[in-house]
């Protein structure tokens, strides 16, 4: 039996409908898997509209980043990210707190040294946190803080194009266990939630 070109197209279209969708990239899987804790953290941080809320933000961010940065410094990472260097913000945050006469809070409990895939997930969270730096820099400036006083951690010229470069490397890196990476990312968000909850208690 002869198949017409139109029938051939219909058959091809039907066959495509049974093909599994292409697997999502790791970055998209991590974004989907952390959407709920990410949204909850945004609500916990709240609007930074005055000096009191800015001080709370600094306390929470320092309490979160100091132990996670220390854990990542000890950790091995997947080969594709081996030469990626996290820019530590904890020292800058400590200086910002000093500028405001704000005692550094007790950091969140230091997490165990993560495995390579979990470390990749934690890096995803810390690198992604820089995306909102421009907006925060504007808000800090309205309160009188800048790279010279109180907002050193937001003056980050090294961030230009950094996020795009990171997620490209993340997606291309071989040997990452997606479930372990997601667990690492979720653990980072859980630590941030605890840190910001504690930052509100004085």
Describe the protein in words:
This is Biliverdin-producing heme oxygenase. The chain has 202 residues and is mostly helical. The chain has helices at 5-17, 26-33, 35-45, 51-74, 90-99, 116-128, 133-142, 162-172, 178-199. Helix 4 (51-74) packs antiparallel against helix 9 (178-199). Residues 14-22 have low confidence and may be disordered.
The CATH homologous superfamily is called Heme oxygenase-like
CATH C-level category: Mainly Alpha
Task: Return residue spans where pLDDT drops below 50 for at least 5 consecutive residues.
Answer: 14-22
Identify the CATH architecture. Answer: Up-down Bundle
What integer value in Å does the Rg equal?
21 Å
Largest sheet: none
How large is the count of helical segments?
Answer: 9
CATH topology: Heme Oxygenase, Chain A
Q: How many independent structural domains?
A: 1
In angstroms, what separates the terminal alpha carbons?
82 Å
State which percent range the strand residues make up: under 5%
Shape: globular
- H-E string: HHHHHHHHH
- State mean pLDDT (0 to 100 scale): 87
Q: What structural class do helix, strand and pairing data support?
A: mainly alpha
Question: Got a strand count?
Answer: 0
Helical percentage: 55-70%
């Amino acid at each position: 039996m002869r198949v017409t070109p139109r029938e051939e197209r219909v058959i091809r279209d039907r066959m495509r409908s049974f093909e599994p969708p292409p697997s999502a990239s790791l970055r998209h899987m991590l974004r989907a898997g952390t959407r709920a804790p990410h949204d909850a953290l945004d609500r916990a941080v709240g609007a930074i509209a005055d000096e009191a809320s800015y001080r709370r933000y600094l306390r929470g961010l320092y309490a979160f980043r100091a132990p996670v940065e220390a854990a990542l410094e000890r950790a091995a990472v997947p080969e594709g990210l081996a030469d990626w260097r996290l820019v530590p913000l904890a020292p800058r945050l400590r200086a910002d707190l000093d500028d405001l006469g704000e005692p550094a809070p007790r950091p969140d409990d230091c997490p165990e040294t993560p495995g390579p895939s979990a470390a990749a997930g934690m890096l995803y969270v810390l690198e992604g946190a820089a995306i909102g730096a421009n907006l925060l820099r504007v808000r800090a400036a309205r309160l009188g803080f800048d790279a010279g006083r109180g907002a050193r951690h937001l003056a980050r010229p090294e961030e230009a194009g950094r996020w795009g470069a990171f997620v490209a490397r993340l997606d291309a890196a071989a040997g990452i266990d997606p479930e372990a990476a997601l667990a690492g990312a979720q653990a980072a968000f859980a630590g941030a939630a605890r840190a910001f909850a504690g930052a509100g208690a004085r």
